[in-house]
Structure formats: structure tokens, C-alpha cells
Amino acid sequence: MDQNEIDEAAGETLRIFRESGAIVEDVHVVHISGLHFPMTINKDAIFPHLDRIERLARLLARRLTDLSIDIVCGPAMGGLVVGEWLAHELGVMCAFAEHDPDPQPGEIRGRFVLRRGYDQLVSNRNVLVVDDIVNTGHSIRQTIEAVRAAGGQVVAAVSLVFVGNFEAKALGVDDSYYL
Q1: How confident is the model at residue 144 (pLDDT cuts 50, 70, 90)?
Q2: Is the confidence at residue 10, as pLDDT, over 90?
Q3: Dist. CA 60–CA 116, nearest whole Å
Q4: Beta strands of 32-92 (E only): which ranges?
Q5: End-to-end alpha carbon distance in the chain
Q6: 25-34, 42-51, 89-98, 156-165: which range is least confident on average?
Q7: Distance (Å, rounded) from C-alpha 98 to C-alpha 101?
Q8: In the beta sheet, which residues pair with residue 40?
Q9: Cα angle at 84 between 18 and 129, to 5 degrees?
């Protein structure tokens, strides 16, 4: 995609989020990381509209045509929804990471891990790690770590929306893409 196409995709993404009532402004949100935000995106306002998720996945897939991807993997819940639609658009398999049911002392929730045989599915494959919205990078970073621990090669990190203030390197990847 050239810059004009990227800008058009960003505009369409914003329109879809606004039409869905997903952008919530003038609120005070504290994320699990402890960071405070004056707005939030209610992704659950979009997920029931399969035509909108399909369109967003198609827009994102267009950004990834130069990547060699065998499987898409995202953290449950939102990354799972977007991951399945994106995998469908790319014509590849999909897996997901979930919270370890046995959190370590001091953890609010267990780290994201690959279970249900997904660790074997990503092993020795080129994996695209996806999340719905990246704020702090916590969920997508843990999913990247889980894929690598299972022997998968992470080719990039992608999301519908990136709200963070950091670069791809902070996620542990060379490239990241978002709408």
C-alpha cells in the first residue's frame, strides 16, 4: 500500500468506529497497566457487526501482502476475533493465546500462553501476531513471547488501532502495522 491508500484505510477505520459508537470520549479510563486515558474505544460496539469486522480485516490484510505468513495468533478475546477474520482474509490458519489459569504470585492475571495444541501449531512457522487495540502493548507483547517460546517466528505485530506511544521494537518485533 502507498501512503495515500494507508491514509484512506485510516479514514475508513475511523468512520467505522464512529458509526459503531465505539469511540468514547471525555471519560477517565485506567488500564490494567495503571496508565490513565481520557478516552477509550469500546471494541464490543464493533464486534457484533460482522460486516464491519470483515471490512477492517480486509483493510488490514492489504497492508500485509509482502509478508510471509503461515498462521495468525492473537490474545483472547479481542485479538482472537480480529485474528480469525484476518486469517480468513489471508487464507491462513489461526491460533490464540489465553491467560495461564495459574497466575504467578503478584500477577493479577496469568500471562498469555499457548494451550490446546496451539503451541505445536505455531512451532517452526511464520506467525503474525494480532490484537484488536494496542494501548500499552501488554497483551500483544505477552502473545509474542508465547509464540516465540513455542518455537514460532514472529514476522510482525498488527492491530486495528494503536493508541500507544512506543515503537515496534518495544514490542520485540521489527515491524508493526495498524489501521
Answers
A1: very high
A2: yes
A3: 27
A4: 36-41, 71-75
A5: 12
A6: 25-34
A7: 9
A8: 24
A9: 90
Q: What is the pLDDT of residue 34?
A: 73
**CA 117, 119, 122, 127: dihedral to nearest 10 degrees?**
130
Which residue shows C-alpha cell 514460532? 152
What cell numbers appear for 132 in the block?
A: 484488536
When pLDDT is cut at 50, 70 and 90, the band that residue 32 belongs to is low
**Residue among 122, 81, 74 nearest 98 (CA):** 74
Grid cell at residue 14: 475511523
Cα-only R_g, the chain:
16
Measured between alpha carbons, how far is 31 from 50 in angstroms, rounded to an integer?
27
Q: How many residues does the chain have?
A: 179
Angstrom CA distances, 92 to 13, 163, 173, stand at: 23, 27, 21
Q: Which residues contact 39 (CB under 8 A, 6 or more apart)?
A: 23, 24, 25, 26, 27, 29
